[in-house]
Design a protein that fits this description.
Number of helices: 14
Order of helices and strands: HHHHHHHEHEEEEEEEHHHHHH
Mean pLDDT: 95
Number of domains: 3
Family: Belongs to the acyl-CoA dehydrogenase family.
Oligomer: single chain
Keywords: FAD, Flavoprotein
GO molecular function, one term: flavin adenine dinucleotide binding
Structural class: alpha+beta
Largest sheet: 8 strands, mixed
Cofactor: FAD
CATH superfamily of the largest domain: Butyryl-CoA Dehydrogenase, subunit A, domain 3
CATH architecture of the largest domain: Up-down Bundle
CATH class of the largest domain: Mainly Alpha
Protein name: Acyl-CoA dehydrogenase
CATH topology of the largest domain: Butyryl-CoA Dehydrogenase, subunit A, domain 3
Number of strands: 8
């Protein structure tokens, strides 16, 4: 599969991740964080405005509407948003995950017609790959099945939770095809005939993520809507998996940074007692800096060598990010004490967000399983 290589050109070591990024977050996101968290407000306008300044284009080649700045820039953007709100940072990751699969598709029509809309934030989108990733790791069965028919595939099944979607949103899914090895990766829209979206579940956090159950009942997927056919899956997976997962580090890095700031502020008045807590701001900040450096370095390596195998290093770093998020949020909560326990206080929100980072696919237990399987040679993708 021949796709355009990204050529990062932006200096992402200093300054803003994008021009205008800090101002957009300050004016459009910060005032809405509590409503996003407690009322489930979906930050649609922020997402569209972020796309307009290039916030979803880093993983997309310029000829398809992107900036082509590369993986590190994408992670920095997700980190900047997550420093204020992990729920919205997750939406940014989902938009990037949608774009990244389309960027790597052999389907030129999708890259030409749909990818620019996603890369510029004109249309919003997500990824329904959680179940597919877990099925590949032999954690659960694939919930979507298909059989070939004239002109495409007929799909049935239900995905319980897909985020950053709606009637006017795109998302891609991984599907088992009858009598064929490998997964079908298909692009659908929320109003696709035969597809029903239901919003029945309520979560302790991330309520503003437009998360729906997706029921496919005799859904026809034409060949024109195929991102990757089953015969292409092995190559497609090897090219996309590392970046797909590493981008999630932006959520953890942003959250940990915010927790360190809370701890430092608390120490101005309560340092004399906070010093008895196990995890201090300086220690967590040091770990954050090391993790950020490792993450950016790996991102540059993935960009420079997109066909190399970066899987183990990516999984290990993502695991560390989840574990560090829990540690940082727990310590921030203990530093703030009773104030952190108030409704609307950022500390208790960060605890809930940290648990999300730890359980969103790939979850901590999933990551440990895949690392075990790699190290022991006991399992490969079962698709």
């Amino acid at each position: 599969m021949q796709v355009e290589m990204l050529k990062p050109v932006m200096d992402t070591e200093t300054g803003e991740s994008l021009p205008g990024m800090a101002e957009l977050i300050r004016t459009e996101l910060c005032p809405r964080v509590v409503s996003i968290d407690l009322k489930g407000e979906y930050p649609r306008e922020f997402m569209h405005k972020l796309g307009a300044i290039g916030g979803f284009g880093a993983m997309v080649a310029p000829q398809f509407g992107g900036t082509g700045y590369g993986l590190k820039n994408a992670i920095r953007i997700i980190e900047d948003v997550s420093r204020e709100c992990v729920s919205t940072g997750f939406m940014v990751w989902a938009q990037y995950a949608c774009a990244w699969y389309l960027q790597n598709s052999s389907n030129l029509a999708i890259r030409r017609d749909v990818l620019p809309l996603i890369a510029k934030g004109i249309v919003l989108g997500g990824t329904g790959q959680s179940n597919a990733m877990k099925s590949c790791a032999a954690i659960e069965d694939n919930r979507l099945t298909a059989k070939r028919v004239d002109g495409g595939y007929l799909v049935n099944g239900t995905l319980p939770w897909v985020s950053n979607i709606g009637i006017d949103h795109y998302f891609h899914v991984g599907i088992d095809v009858e009598n064929e090895p490998g997964l079908l990766i298909a692009l659908v829209k929320g109003d696709h005939p035969g597809l029903t979206l239901n919003q029945n579940a309520h979560f302790i956090a991330m309520e503003g993520t437009n998360t729906f159950a997706c029921n496919f009942k005799g859904v026809f997927i034409s060949n024109e809507s195929v991102v990757s056919h089953p015969s292409e899956f092995t190559q497609f997976k090897s090219r996309t998996k590392a970046a797909f997962i590493l981008m999630q580090m932006g959520m953890g890095l942003g959250l940990i940074d915010a927790c360190v700031s809370m701890m430092k502020r608390s120490n101005k008045t309560h340092g004399h007692v906070n010093c008895f807590l196990d995890d201090q701001a300086e220690t967590i900040e040091s770990e954050l800096l090391a993790a950020r450096e490792a993450c950016y370095r790996l991102a540059d390596k993935i960009d420079a060598m997109p066909d190399a195998n970066h899987e183990r290093e990516t999984l290990a770093l993502r695991l560390a990010g989840g574990e560090m998020s829990l540690k940082a949020a727990n310590s921030a909560m203990l530093h703030l004490g009773a104030k952190g326990y108030l409704v609307g206080n950022a500390a208790q929100r960060r605890v809930r967000e940290a648990y999300f980072i730890a359980i969103v696919t790939p979850a901590i237990k999933h990551l440990r399983k895949e690392l075990h399987d790699i190290d022991t040679g006991s399992c490969a993708c079962t698709a």
